[in-house]
Protein 1
Amino acid sequence: MAVCFIDPKNAVEFKDILNADKEFKIAARYMTKDVCIEAGDTKCIVKFRDGVVTQIKSENAFADPWDFAIRGSIDSWEKFLQPIPPRFYDGIFGGMLRGNFRMEGDTVAALSHLWAVTRMLDIFREQQNK
Amino acid sequence: MVKIDKVIGKYVHLTVQDVEYRVFYEESGQGIPMICQHGGGGDGLEWRHMLNDSDITSKYRVIVPDLPYHGKSLPPESVEWWKQEYQLTKNFLFDFYLELMRVLMFERPVFIGNALGGFLALDLACEFPDEFRAVIGVNSALKAGQSTRDTFNHPCVTNDYRRTNAMYFCGPASPEKYRRECTWCAMMSPPVTKGDLYYYFKEHDLTGKTKLIDTSKCAVYLLTGEYNPTKSIEDTKRVSEQVKGSKFTEMKGMSHAGMPENPLAFKKYLMPILNEIVEKSKK
């Protein structure tokens, strides 16, 4: 199973789906951050400007800066993206407590914007299982 | 037709550790008294389904207090509380409940609590076995794990953190309307979560003390959610293995939030326990 949000083919479509989601619009209000989502040795950077996702960049993102990162193995993300994930993979915070995900960088900003990030990841799950 | 809940809300004035508190509590039903303790940073709203369930209130007098500084129980008027960091201690919890029971004249109540309340259930069973006929610990453990206290009272961390935590402290298949209600309740609480977690992370530790729990005096029932990431079913099984006579049940599909995340599923696990306590109380 591929991790859908890393695939560059999905970048534009996923950006539009996020920006059209009613809950995501509220959750991401005022957010201006670059968020790195890393799966194993692959990653994408989701760029937020004033609450809108302006780009999901997974190609040529090697040296791009980011404010905070959510990191997990491919296996962890595959479990997370299942329609009903197994225990300790159903949420980022709980997954972090159990060592399945890691948060790095500006963690205070990450916690403050956790609603936006988790809604984004839930939307990615919906897309993974479409 | 007008629908009015049978739940009654009252205030009782309690003096605990030389300070008077005006404590709000809700009450419903008749029978064996059962005190319901909310989790850290929460309030009595967590138990609203229990208060309104006639299968329970036909046998139990359900009492749901808001601890001081929580819900409708404001900080005390006689204390300059704004000059000190709020910190909930085990001794305060002990003194609070013994005084509440004395003033409201409870005779050997059942105590049920989730998360922080689940920890307290075990501490009460350990310290006051003659005062309680049974405790029901929801998401209980010998001690807490990695502390997340500081994240709950940081001026730069928004309330969105609390709401998101609450959402994912519910099982992924729990009904969305209840998961969202949990997020709403989490956002309403004042910044007491960090102080509550002082007891949770720093004070509750039953390591080496489980032998002191005598289930022939105070029965111990343990319920833990399959998905609970803070204290797992394995953590609670460890308690159950050490407390002779205790009974442990895994709540499939449920997580850390307990009753409010999925009231129907919770009831399925709770009712056999409540029925057993009723039968034991007849003897």
Protein 2
Amino acid sequence: MAETKVIMPQMGESIFEGTLTKWLKKPGDKIERDEALFEISTDKVDSEIPSPASGVLQEILVKEGQTVQINTVVAIIGDGSGKASAASPAAKTETKPTPAATVAAPARTDAAPVSDEERMPTSPLVRRLAKEHNIDLAVLAGKGTGINGRITKDDILSYIENSGRSGSGTAKKSPLPTPAPMTFSGETERAPMTAMRKSIAEHMMASRRTSAHVTTFFEIDCSRIMQAREKLKAEFETSGVHLTITPFFVQAVVRALRKFPIVNASIDGDSIVYKRGINIGIAVSLDGGLIVPVVKNAAEKNLQGLAHAINDLGERARTKKLTPDDVKDGTFTITNPGVYGALTGTPIINQPQVAIMGMGGIKKRAVVIDDAIAIRPIIVLSLSFDHRLIDGALADQFMADIQKQLETWQG
Amino acid sequence: MNAKTVDPHTLGTGQRPALPPKETQLKILYFMKVVRELENRIERKLYRQGKIVGGVYVGRGQEAIAVGSCIDLRADDVVCPSHRDMGAFLIRGMSLRTIIAQYMGKKTGATKGKDSNMHMGSLEHNLVAFISMLGDSIPVAAGIGLSFKMRGQDRVVVCSFGDGATSRGDWHEGLNMASVMKCPVVFVCNNNQYAYSTPLERQMAVENVADRAPAYGMPGEIVDGNDVLAVWDASQRAITYARGGHGPSLIECKTFRMTGHSAHDDAGYVPQELFDYWETRDPIRRLERTLIQQNALTDAGIAEMQKGIHQEIDEAIAIAEKDPYPDPEDCLRDVYFEE
Amino acid sequence: MALTTYVDAIRQGISEEMERDDNVFVLGEDVGIYGGAFKVTHGLLEKFGETRVIDTPISESAIIGAAIGAAMMGLRPIAEMQFADFISCAFDQITNFAAKCRYRWGAGIPIVVRAPSGGGIHGGPFHSQNPEMHFVHTPGLKVVCPSTAYDAKGLLKAAIRDADPVIYFEHKYLYRRIKEELPTGDFVVPIGKAALRRKGSDISVITYGAMVYVALDAAKELEKEGIDIEVLDLRSLLPFDREAVLETVKRTNKVILLHEDTRIGGFAGELAAVISEEAFDYLDGPIRRITAPDTPVPFSPPMEEYFLPQVSDVLRVARELHAY
């Protein structure tokens, strides 16, 4: 017959210990199942405990007066033949630890936090994408476009897209450096940028970073071309062409570019790319931004042809009827800061061109001619040029040629 | 005696109660004795041997109520017992082994280990498992009765509860609704005069639970809860009343709780005189005496019945002890309908 | 097909199910003669009779208890709580009796508890609550919150046919404001499946109930700013459509959790945990919540407006999240 362990019972749901108050049998006594074996006392009740089995009380493990946890083995009942089981040292009365006594295991630590200098604010998604594409996020350090310079999903996706392209000159789209976040202690109201505005912003910054901008200024006496315009106006009108003063300037620029082809070129890495055709972009102001439709092959057009082309492009720009072809492949750009009365301007080069001319407002001024004061219509022309390619001397020669053409215009 | 006692001979309808046939009376005795012996084993032996954990609530001294009210129900009637109605479970057909395994938390128990002690039910046996929030079963019983009405069935519900449960809001809502809707429910109150340590005078301001019956527009009757034949008689009349479509009624069985509230409560707050007084009115011995007086039974017959009951219970315990515990992961099963 | 309001859709659902199955019946306060406080059960008493459309005493606990008892015997009760706010009176019967019967003793309790929930009607603290989380937190129950007339009808049918207790929160603000063309014939919306209301690429807004419309209105505004919002309508809270939630987050990588319920212990907390546990590597920004504050529902209109999440809240949070 196997041994039966007699346990301290749980007399009540909240009870977790009991005191053995009295043994009703002693070791060696015979005992019947269900016969009273010992007495206990708990917080709730005193009770007589019946034996769970018949046999002989072999060993008492808990003494009278001792308080033990519930389920503690208090005695062993055997069949009377065996000795006390060898494995019953005092350790047997060891009780299960109560939950309160268990020391809470230390929390598992996360991966060591990155120090502030190394810290690259980003997101789980970005980290996963970086891992999947074997990108060290350090290449995007300082280049995040999210709040506070966070590297965003778009940042890493652009990087992934562009890192496959050839690493040369104008084709490479380098990620923009982030400006410091704007702070202001007064009340503000946020409005998101339109797509056009975002595009202009990017283009302007890119241009500034690409070219070594220098601007030179020339005053032109417009009296000659204004007289010419008066004379030709009616004639052009019969062909349905409205003649403004602009085509005169475009014509002069075109002729000057033929003489100074480097001003019509582009830079590609270490090469100078000279372009055969001369395509003059004319900047048009629209609400919320500007657009630059291009007069293609301007060198092949006479004054009337230029006037016609300029008018047509301007009209279609304002009625939003320009095609993609109308706005690409310009080689030189003319802009008009004088349209609202500015004296002149310092325009930003329209990449990948190397020069841009700004036309100020035409104003009657007192000038000195042959040591006498005369009144003449004067315009200030500005030329912003890329000093990587064009030196100041050449720029001035280019402009001097334009000046001469306009002031001695004959056709 | 400084505690309130109730002499049932001064109450009741005044009519001489009807009696069940002798075979039924013997059956009644048998079930009361099984309940007594089973609960003794559960509370005084198995629990103290650590073979049962959790709470244990027995109905010692109150056996007459469940047995008397349920013995003559139809199989398609429904019973909503409470925690001291072991007799209801046995009469409706739940086995001793299933009940003992239930207490032991075994896989073969009535709830497969999901719930403890008397929280058992079985739709197959038309037994509704109560919940610990006693009183909740009263509106449920009303709803069961409502379903019989709606389907035009002449089935009835017997809904049992203690004096304490009658203080709960659900008890009042349920009685009211059952009465308004004329549901075929027999409400049986086991007024054993103590709810845990709370005696009746701290539980209610009226003297009798049955005093509330007219407040809810239903007949109420007080019976001697220790006279099983009187309980039988009142129950039969109430069952007939309900089955006839007249609606619910309330039977209050006056009795006494001969134990603590649970196995770990020694009821030290109950004056010993009450235990002594009610011991003399033990329902089982009372029926035995009656049957012997009428020559329907002998002492030897009683002893033999007792022996047979012991054997049945011994066998059931032996099987249940060997039954396995549920797989721990079974705790995840049957939260929702599973195909 | 006819233009059907949300409230009419619910009534149709009840009526059609009562026609289909004799075991289905309705009980609650003022549901019979009066047709229900919101007229949801209008006409049903005349159609089905007082045996199947039962006016009860004011006894939420007994209403649910009786429904439980009837369901145990094989009937299919639809118990109405006049306002979801009163469901607390029956909390015990729902969470301790109905929710646990199958688990404990294999007895399925196929009841439907209909509860008009939500604010925006100047109802104050006891006529505006969204108490769904008490029941989402109770295993054994199912909880649904339709936002469209189609779903109101389809989910109600699913609830009635379900073998387990379903708490059906109908949003009272939507009753007569939502009108849709509903198909004729029987249709059921499965419990536990979300619906994508608007496909988008920038931010997912996950929501339910009346807030679905707040999300959609905000999405129209945000489209003008170039922010493309995806709106997922959960429809069911217990069980909820885990796959759909994870799928939308994985698609847009930014998520806003929006509900009319208060903040602490609201469903957004549960979703945020699930998203963080199961879609962490897909997040390009923190999970944002837009909820009511942790207060009872105030009455005075300017306070209630402040309390309820508005389109402007969604705009603000979406813009912040988009720029993150």
